[in-house]
Structure formats: structure tokens, C-alpha cells
Amino acid sequence: MNANTNSASPLVSILIPVYNVERYVQQALDSIASQTYANLQVIVVDDCSTDSTAEIVERFCERDPRFVLLKNVTNLHIAKALNRALSEATGEYIARCDGDDVMEPDRIQRQLDYLHTHSDVALVGCSLVFIDESNAEISRYAFPSGTALTSHLLRYSTAVSHIWLCRREVYDQVGPYRIPTVEDYDFLLRADLAGFKLDNIPNYFGMKIRVRTDNTVGKYGIVQRKLFNYARRVHAAERRGLDVYAERSVQHIIENGREGVLARLHYASDKVSYMASIRPKGLPKYLLIAVAAAISPYKFQYYLNAALRMYVVRKHRRVST
After folding, report:
1. Which residues pair with 140 in a beta bridge?
2. Do residues 205 and 140 lie in contact, with contact meaning Cβ atoms separated by under 8 Å?
3. What are the distances in angstroms from CA 131 to CA 100, 106, 235?
4. Cβ–Cβ contacts within 10 Å for residue 136, how many?
5. Contact, 29 vs 57, CB < 8 A?
6. CATH 3.90.550.10 in the chain, residue ranges
7. In a 3-state reduction of DSSP, which class is residue 68?
8. 106 near 31, Cβ under 8 Å?
9. What sign for the dihedral angle of Cα 122, 126, 131, 134?
10. Which CATH code for domain 12-210?
11. Whole-prediction pTM value?
12. Under the phi-then-psi rule, with left for phi > 0, alpha for psi from -120 to 50, and beta for the rest, what region is 20?
């Protein structure tokens, strides 16, 4: 355990939903325990794993009292698992991590320092290093910084990754997570609408995100894209003062979204897109992206939004200089 657990250091609660990540969860927990900022409350919610994930976490909790494990009786999926962790969180600040993520040692300290020096910012993220199942680096993604730009980019997709740190009052005002697989994007849309300023630490790659075929994207595929569009429709209505969110609509998408020819085509496009992300030798990345976009209209939408984001960022940089 690190040394700076004095009363002047605010408590940071870290929410970690886990499900069948026995290969990776030890490394994720080690990266949290090794943080240079030590005043942490780490709440792990096991969502009915069928492997040894829960046992690994239990052994870890016995060694470090800052960590606690909650076990769901039924599989609630990620949004409700996060909400259970949130209900137990007592920290002045809330952070996220997944069971296969790996934190840089100074991630929490850097994000906390950023919020302390930017009193107008309520939630801050950082840029990402993508790694494969063997911890080899695949690529990097730099999230743009600046609250105005971050707010604008939410029109196209998430502008802050799920590994943010935010002030507790954001959750108190915005409310819990709602829409599984896009729970972070939906939360950011509501936080932005509520007037909270969101940002990313410039040029700081504080998190390693694992790319694998059985994570959220690989597991949910077209359902995630349909829920993304649903979150955007709900947000558009909320901007007009209308409350159209319905949990039954979310459940209908989850239960029926994988049916039909389009779902099978999108599954194939996800496979091609995954190949593009790991950049196999002899296959040009952008050729694979073009093939993936041609197979599924949802994948085409995904890449179109990515292109629009890139255009907005470049335009912003030209104006700024």
C-alpha cells in the first residue's frame, strides 16, 4: 500500500464490474493497488462469473482492505452492476475501471490533480493505449481536450472514455447508469445536458484498454450499435424537455436485436473490423475498414461518425492556431 492516505486526501471510489475475466483481473487489480494515490475505495461487482474471477478477487480483497467484492445473485449486466457498486461508494470522487483494463501508476493522481486545478471541470478522462490479450500494444487513441470541443464531439460518439474520474455531485444530479453497453455514452450525454463540463487530460495516456473478441463490443455487436442510436434519440428528446426513456425499450433491443440477416452481416463486419484493429500483416488497415463498412450499415455509421469527429477536431485545431 502507498503512503499518502492522510485525512487531507479525498477518498476516491473506483467502480469495477467484472464478468469472466480470470485471465486479466489480477493484473487489473494490481494496477489499482499500485496507484501513487492511495486513498481508494475499490468496489468490485462480480456479475455471476462462471470462471474463477470471483475467487481471484476474493483472495485479493483479503490482502488489501481497500478492496471489497460484491456478488450478484443473477446476471444484471454492466449498467446495473455499476449501479450496485455506485450505491456502495462513499468517495468524494468516482472513477471507473473494467476487469481487463490496466491503469498507469499515476492515473488517479493525474486526474485528481487536473480536477483540483480546473475547478470548472466536473469529469475528466485521458487518452488510451490499446493492448491485445498478451499485453502487446496495438495502437493508441488520443482524446481531444477542451470542454467546448468535448461537448461538441458528443454529437457523434463518446468524447471521454469510460475510465474517467468525476466529482460525486455529477452522479448525484445526473443519476445512475441506464443503457447497457452504451451506459457511459448515455451518462456523458446527460451530464453535458445538465451543464457539467467534461474534459480530457491533454497528451496523457493513462490507461491500457484490452482489445479482445469476447469483451463488450465483441459480445453485443449490433445490439450495442442499436442501443447507441437509442441513446441518441432519447437525448435528442431530453434536449427538448421530453422524457422518453423506457427500460422496456432497452430490454426489447437486447432481447431481439441479434435477429435477422442484418445482425449476421454486422457480426461479420465486427470480425473484419477487429482484424483492422490488430493490423494483420499483408492486409491494409483501411481496406479492412472499407470492407467492414460495406458489410453493415451500422458499421458504416460508426466509421462515418469517426470521420466527422476527426474533421471537427482538425477544424478546431486550425481555428485555434
Report:
1. 129
2. yes
3. 10, 19, 32
4. 9
5. yes
6. 12-210
7. strand
8. no
9. negative
10. 3.90.550.10
11. 0.90
12. left
Tracing cell 437486447 back to the chain, one arrives at: 254
Extract the C-alpha cell encoding 194. 445538465
Cβ-based neighbour number of residue 75 at 10 Å: 12
Amino acid at 82: L
Residue 1 in 3-state DSSP? coil
Over the stretch 120-140, which tens digit does the pLDDT of each residue have? Answer: 999 999 999 999 999 999 999
pLDDT exceeding 70 applies to what percent of the chain? 93
CA separation for the pair 208, 131 (Å, rounded)? 6
Query: Which residues contact residue 113 at a Cβ distance below 8 angstroms, ignoring those fewer than 6 apart?
Result: none
Pull the grid cell for residue 178: 441506464
Find where cell 462469473 sits: 49
Residue 92, C-alpha cell as written in the block = 468524494
Chain segment 198-252, per-residue pLDDT in tens: 999 999 999 999 987 664 444 568 999 999 999 999 999 999 999 999 999 999 9
